[in-house]
Amino acid sequence: MKRLAIIGLVLAAGCAVGPDYHPPKTKAPTNWSEAQLGGATNSAVQTVEWWKTFNDPELNSLIERAVAANYDLRIAEAQLLQARALRSGAVWAFTPSITGSASYTDRQTSRNAQTFVASNQVFETHLYDASFDASWEIDVFGGLRRQLQQATAQYASVEEQRRFVLISVMAEVARNYVDVRGFQKRININHENIIAQQESVEITRARFNAGLTSELDVKQAEVLLATTRAQLPTLETALRQTVHQLSVLIGREPGALLDELAATAPIPAPPPEVPVGLPSELLRRRPDVHAAERDLAAATANVGVQTAELFPKFFLLGLGGYQTVSMTSWISPGSQYWSAGPTMTWRLLDFGRIRAQIKAADAQTKQALAVYEKTVLIAFQDVENALVAYGNEQVRYRALADAVAANRRAMELASELYTKGLGDYLNVLVTQRALFDVEDQLADSQRTVTANLVALYKALGGGWEANAKMEARK
C-alpha cells in the first residue's frame, strides 16, 4: 500500500495535459492621444486616496461609510468568500476520500421456501458491520491540477471584480456628493435671481403707477419672475433624489442624509495638478483588466480539465472493517476484513462527447481572450474620454465665468438706463434672463469639472488604498 502511494505521488508530479497558460502580451500606446489639459500631467500616479485631494471632510466621511456598509460591496465580498471556498475544495481533491459506515441487519429466512430443513438450521440471523472505505485519485495526467489552476484563477478574478465594485462605489459616492453641492448652488442662484426679479417687478410697477411706462413692462417682468420660480421645484426634486441615492450608497434608508446635507456647502474644487501616468501603467491598476486576464487563465486551465477526460484515471482503493453475527464478538480480530489495491477507469466509448467538450473549452478560451483585449481597449478609451472631458470642461468654465461678468455689467447698465428713463425695459429683461441662464450654466459647469475629475480617477483605477484597508479589516 505504501509503495503504491509513493508511485502515485511520483506520477502526480508529472506534466499536466492541455495547454500551459501564458499571459497575453498587450501593446500599450506610448502616450495618451488627448492633450493634458486642466492640470493633468504624465507624472506617475501616486497611490493616494484621491477623494482626499478635494479637501472636503464630508466627502471623506461619506466614502468611509460607503466602504464599510455599501450593499454592492457586501455582495461582492460574499462572492469572494464563495470563490475562496470553491478553491479550497479544489485543493482537497488531492487528498484521499474516506467514508465510514456502520449497519445492523436482522434477517429472517422463510421456512416454507426450504426443500430440506436440518435440525440445526438457523432461520433468523443478525449481522453487525462497521467499515471504512478509502479512495485516492492519482493525478497522473493532471486533470486535478488543471482544476486547481482553474479555481485559483476564478478566485483571483472574483477578487479583482470586488475591487472594481469598490472603485465604482467610491466614484458614485463622490459623483453624487458633487451633484448635491451643484444642485444647492444652482438653487441659491435661482433664489438670488428671484429676489432681483422681484425688485424689477416692483420698479416697473412703480413706474407704471407713476405713468412713466406701460403695463407691458410690468407683465414682462412678472413673466420672467414666474419662469424663474418654475425652475425651482425641478432643482429641488433633483437635489432630494440625489441625497436619497447617496443615503442608499452608504447602506442607509433614503432619507438618512437629508438633515446632514441640508446646509449648503461649496462644490469640491479639483487640485491644481492631476497625475495620470502613462498608458503602460494603466493596465497594472485597472481591476477589470486583471479580472479579464484571470478569466482567460481559468478558461485555459479548463481546456486541460476537459482533455484529461480522454485518458484513464487511476485510484488507490481500500476497504476495511469489522463484521460479525454476534454483538459480543463485533470488535475482535476474528471479525476483521479488508481489501486494498489500485484500480483504473476509462471512458472508452465516450470520446466523441469528450472531444466536443474540449472544442467548447477551446472556444471559451478564444472568447476570454477577445474579452480581455476588448477590456484593455475600453480601459484606454475611458481614460482618453475622461481626459478630454475634464480638460475641455475647464475651458468652458472659464468662458462661462467671463460671460457671467460681462452679463452682470450689461444688466447693471440696462437697469440704470431704464431707471433714468433712458432705456427700453426689453434690454433689462434680456440681460436679466441672460445673466440667470449663464450663472446657472456656470454653476453646472463647475459641478461638471469636478464630476469629470472623479470619472478620470475611476478610469485610472483609483481606490486601491481603500481596498487595502478592507483587506486589513479581514
Structural class comes to alpha+beta
Order of helices and strands: HEHHEEHHEHHEEHHH
By DSSP (H or I, 4+ residues per run), the number of helices equals 10
* CATH topology description: Outer membrane efflux proteins (OEP)
Main sheet attributes: strand count, strand direction, barrel closure: 4 strands, antiparallel
CATH class: Mainly Alpha
**What's the rounded overall pLDDT mean?**
85
Record the strand order, biggest sheet: 2-3-5-6
- The first-to-last residue Cα distance is 43 Å
Shape: elongated
Please report which band the strand proportion falls in: under 5%, 5-15%, 15-25%, 25-35%, 35-45% or over 45%: 5-15%
Q: Helix amount, in percent?
A: 55-70%
CATH-derived architecture: Up-down Bundle
Quaternary: single chain
Kindly provide the radius of gyration, computed on alpha-carbon positions and rounded to a whole number of angstroms. 38 Å
**Sequence stretches where pLDDT stays below 50 over 5 or more residues:** 1-13, 466-474
Please give a handful of descriptors for the protein shown.
Outer membrane efflux proteins (OEP); two-stranded parallel ribbon; elongated; four-stranded antiparallel beta sheet; 474 residues; alpha+beta; 10 helices
